[in-house]
Design a protein that fits this description.
single chain; 89 residues; mainly beta; two-stranded antiparallel ribbon; two-stranded antiparallel sheet; 6 strands
């Protein structure tokens, strides 16, 4: 049995995505940090459900857009938002 736990920084609420010299800046949003066990054993839908429960989102009236912050460059840190919709992303 694995006790592997991944930590997520979750940005939420009202705000603007700002793009600066290092790419995306999410500092206008609220942020919380949460951990989840065995993330690699879970399907995307399971992770979304965990997120919605944690944020107390009513799934009948609201939807969640999941995006991750990635760096595609090897020379400098330039952060981009990438939408996620399935395990293949």
């Amino acid at each position: 049995m694995s006790s592997e736990k991944s930590i997520f920084s979750i940005y939420y609420g009202e705000g603007n995505v700002i793009y600066g010299p290092n790419g995306v800046d999410l500092s206008e949003f609220n942020c919380t940090v949460r951990g989840i066990t065995r993330p690699h054993e879970r399907i995307f839908e399971s992770l979304c459900n965990w997120l919605m429960r944690g944020l107390r989102i009513n799934q009948e009236t609201h939807i969640v857009s999941v995006q991750c912050v990635i760096n595609r460059t090897t020379h400098t840190l330039i952060w981009e938002l990438m939408p996620l919709a399935s395990n293949e992303d």
